Amino acid sequence: MKSPTLLKLEQQFLKSLRTDKNSPWLESIIIPAHQRNTEEVLDLYLNRARTRTIAPFHEIFPACEAIMGSELFDRFVDDFYLHSHCDNVTVLDYANSFMDYLTVVKPEFFEPLIPTIEEQTIDWSRLLIDVALTEWRLRRAETAPTLRKNNPEELLHRLRVKKLHGYRPKLEHGTRIPFSCYCLVPLTKAHKCPIEPRHLIAGERKPYLIWRKPDNQVEIRTISEDEARLLRSCNGHLSVTAILQEETHFGFSREETLDRISEAIKLGWIVSLFDPMSYQ
């Protein structure tokens, strides 16, 4: 349990990060080094905290920055930081909150962006939320601890042993299967080459797979709605038997679904078949 003084210190520090005025209480407990005043020392600490949490946004959201332009992106980030209610001063916590901020951002912030692309009216709020969310998911997939413990051959053997159909298939940690009306595939390479909004205009809703490949490279790829439904069932809660039964309602025989699960294992999408009894 934190002491009241330490808790107050954290609260006052966070409050000062989000306002233009430093906390008098913080200034009162700082003992500055020779030839420095209290306000100067506190500003140094606050600026360092802001830099450590906000500077990585350029790395996490390169496509957002490319679409907005650096000047407008910095304006978004500064306004977000000022109004953020995130209580943890960490990069990932702030980046996670950035998507929430984009849903309530002031309309005038989007005025510098052109209203149409190739004769299509652009809903910039919707586009940027999708882009930011996808870039956040890419980072999560990249940094999540791996679940790969067995090679595909071992998993395929388990899958074909009928008595093991109580096992539950799981995808790699950090894998996400979003739907979007935008083309998300180019965002995989946003760190390497500039992204333009016209690259993202798709026009129809599609499911995507965001996953970390066996070589640890993160990828976005389009998948079919049948693949999306099957992979979403591989969440560690449904057994192979339950998935086989569920897919019969979509016109797939049990053998066909077994083949589809086998293919997902070979592709590296399904990385685990665990025994729920082992947790008891």
TrEMBL record:
Residues 9-102 form the Putative DNA-binding domain. InterPro entries: DUF2063, DUF2063_N_sf. Pfam families: DUF2063 (PF09836). It comes from the Bacteria. This is Putative DNA-binding domain-containing protein. The lineage of its organism: Bacteria, Bacillati, Cyanobacteriota, Cyanophyceae, Oscillatoriophycideae.
